[in-house]
Amino acid sequence: xxxxxxxxxxxxxxxxxxxxxxxxxxxTLQAKHGLxxxxxxxxxxxxxxxxCNDLSIIKIDKLKKLNYLILDCLKxxxxxxxxxxxxxxxxxxxxxxxxxxxxxxxxxxxxxYLKQNLPKGIYPAYDGLKLNL
Length: 133
Known about the structure:
The chain is 20% helix and 29% strand. It is an alpha/beta fold. It has a single domain (2-14, 24-124), classed as Metallo-beta-lactamase, Chain A (4-Layer Sandwich), CATH 3.60.15. It has a seven-stranded mixed sheet with strand order 1-2-3-4-5-6-7. The protein is globular and about 40 Å long.
């Protein structure tokens, strides 16, 4: 329990990493992850949303029309603490990023099936994936 509070105090609402022309500025938001909160990171017209099941994020203007949305998508079936595939498709439609990458995929979400059948602009993420920000 103490670790959770320590991390919450460690991560500031806005922070930067890197130096000079390689500096990346981050903004953070809190979102629901089951019974606790998780942190959303926004940087370089990209949002990283892992460990989340908070559909109210579709109302957050900072998350709209990004270049990249990296989104938690644990399973096909609903989950008490993570988005499922249907919810991710809904979020993508509402936030309208150029590309959405689904991450945290459980074994019931086959990578090859997703790659061939997801709507335009939505992709399954994979280990080692690199994005040009």
